[in-house]
Protein: VanZ like family protein
Organism: Aneurinibacillus soli
Amino acid sequence: MRKRWIVVGVALMAAVIFVSSSIPYDRQNIQPLLARMVNQDLVTRWFGWVDFMYGTKEISIAHVGVPAFLEFFIRKAAHLISYALLGYLMSRLLGVLRLHGWRNALCAIGLAVLYAASDEIHQMFTPHRQGTPIDVCLDACGAAVGVWLAWKRVNHSERSTGRD
C-alpha cells in the first residue's frame, strides 16, 4: 500500500511539473502583480547591488527592473522546491523497491535529472518559453536536496527504531 502512494506522489509531482511547463509565459507572468504589491524602493535599497549572469541573461534590478528581478528568484525557487520534492519521492520509491545507499541516491538524482532535461526540451516547444541547461543543473541541485532529506528521514527512523 505504501508503495502505491509513493508511486502516486511521483506521478503527481511529474504531472505538476509537466503542466506548469506547458503554460506559455504570458499566462504565468506575475510581474504586474509584483509591481502592484511590492515596495520597489525597498527592494532596490536591499538588493540593488545584486548583479550576475544566469546563462546568457544579466540578472539585476538595474537591468530587468524590480518585478522581473523578483519573479526570477520566485521561478528559480519553484524549480528547486519542485525537484527537491520529486527527488525525495523518487528516493523513497526506490527505497521501497529495495534500492538503498549510494545506489538509491545516484538513481533518484539521475532519474530526476533525466526528467528535468526532458522537461527543458518540452519547454522549447511551448510558446514564449525556453529550455536551458542551467535550469537542469538547478533542478539537479533541488533533486539532490530532496534525496538528502529522504536519506535523513530514513536514517532518523532507523536510529529511533533501533535498526541497523
Summary: The chain has one domain: 2-29+67-161. DSSP finds eight helices and two strands in the chain.
